[in-house]
Amino acid sequence: MATELAVEGAAAHAPTASEYIVEHLTHLSSRHQDKIIDFSIFNVDTIFWSVVIGIVGCTFMWIAARRATSGVPGRFQALVEIVVEMVEDQSKAIIHGNRSFIAPLALTVFVWVLLMNALDFLPVDWAGGLNRLFELLGLHIHVPHHRTVPTADLNGTLGMALGVFALMLYYNVKIKGLGGFVRELFCAPFGAHPALWIPNLGLNIIEFVAKTVSLGMRLFGNMYAGELIFLLIALLGSTATWWGFGMHVVAGSVWAIFHILIVLLQAFIFMMLTLVYVGQAHEGH
After folding, report:
1. Would you say 235 and 17 are in contact if contact means Cβ atoms under 8 Å apart?
2. Segment 111-140, tens digit of pLDDT
3. Out of 40, 218, 238, 253, which one is annotated catalytic?
4. Is there a catalytic annotation at residue 222?
């Protein structure tokens, strides 16, 4: 009788499908429950994993540089050389001039975004599983539930896009001079007639805003959709039937394989658009 009551109580407290998804899409943040809008709110999980993965990426490239040899490269060195040559070729084709900062920047962006995207392959309930392991081991450690993929947070992707926006402004001023950049804002693309100054400025502002917003939204949209599909697949495994478990394994495996392409493609697209936007700052209308 007591066992039946315990089972019924556990079932009563089990989250529904919508509650499960909402819980896993909720950030670990500094937000106070009584506040709806607060610009002092920080998504702690996004910041934490962005910094951790940034350190991992820098360490990865540092190890590759330390182990580089002039002889026959090993697998690790060959992989890094392929990535470096790919980024160098793309930067050379887009930006004509000094690339001493831009090429390493593009490499950093590609590796950083790729590793952050790859966090989506972690099990969706890894934090809960780790907590249960700590309990079995008698350790008083609790990992709070949080979202692991920084690129599935619009705050994170728009933050990176704003960094690219700052680079666009910097190189526009550096290459054209402050006066040349201001003149281009008011005189391109329609012409230098005073009656066209306002339309030119409005169009240029829209162009800068559209580039920045679309850059962040594209990465966020693809990674958020991928994370949501993983959650839906995880729900199949909670049906307690052989059919549900089988579909969970098959669908999870197929989507994980397909998601590898998305992870790589989105990192490549973000890097390429960064190069394109910075390259456009080197050119005039």
Report:
1. yes
2. 999 999 999 998 888 888 888 888 898 888
3. 218
4. yes
- CA-nearest of 201, 217, 231, 221 to 262 is 221
- For residue 145, give the amino acid letter: H
Contacts of 138 (CB under 8 A, 6+ apart): none
Report how far residue 117's alpha carbon sits from residue 220's, in angstroms, rounded to the nearest whole number: 10
Predicted pLDDT of residue 179: 93
CA angle 228, 251, 254 (to 5 degrees): 100
Catalytic residue, candidates 67, 132, 214, 253: 214
Instruction: State the Cα–Cα distance between residues 213 and 158, nearest whole angstrom.
Output: 7
Helix/strand/coil for 237: coil
Residue 189: asked if its preceding bond is cis (omega within 30°), the reply is: yes
pLDDT interval class at 10 (50, 70, 90): very low
Give the number of C-alpha atoms closer than 13 A to the C-alpha of residue 222, restricted to the C-beta side: 21
pLDDT tens, residue by residue, 185-194: 999 888 888 8
More confident position, 5 or 224:
224
Alpha carbon 193 to its chain centroid, in Å, reads: 43
Q: Which one is catalytic: 31, 222, 238, 253?
A: 222
